[in-house]
Amino acid sequence: MIIIDDKxxxxxxxxxxxxxxxxxxxxxxxxxGDCGAPLDKSEVKTLKKIYxxxxxxxxxxxxxxxxxxxxxxxxxxxxxxTPIVNxxxxxxxxxxxxxxxxxxxxxxxKDGVVDFRKPxxxxxxxxRIKKYESFEAVNYDRWDVCKPACKNGKTLQVPVYRFLKDAxxxxxxxxxxxxxxxxxxxxxx
Length: 189
Fold this sequence. Notes:
Helix content is about 40%, strand content about 15%. By secondary structure, the chain is an alpha+beta fold. Pfam families: DUF3109. InterPro entries: Rv0495c (IPR021458).
């Protein structure tokens, strides 16, 4: 385990390898599961605020679900989460002509429509963060739908934390990432 400030990082974050392979999984992480993506309190407010700008990027089913439930729902385990359609696909998900699932929020971000990229839990996946009273546990989450990403990561020799560099910097800052990288490089010479 690696400890940086109040973050307890599982060794798997630096030992396991991972690079998304969307051509193999087709964005299954936005479809599979029993609840939507976990949201921070600030993200709940942000989604309400930006919804009018991102609505045109969403599928009709997603728009209808958000009209019915709101821009977020509550899950017993994760708290605030994105709504899901028919107990599966995220209400914010898009599907292109090739069946590839993407994020309507992220498409709006890339088009410069909003300055919010997507929920941090999505950006950080396969890392999941659990907050405790005095620390945060930063863990690698194994999920069958990500087997192609694990294989791809091994082929390319990219550790989870390096694949998620931008997301980790977004969440914890550059200094945190640089310390994590230094520790990882020392431990894996």
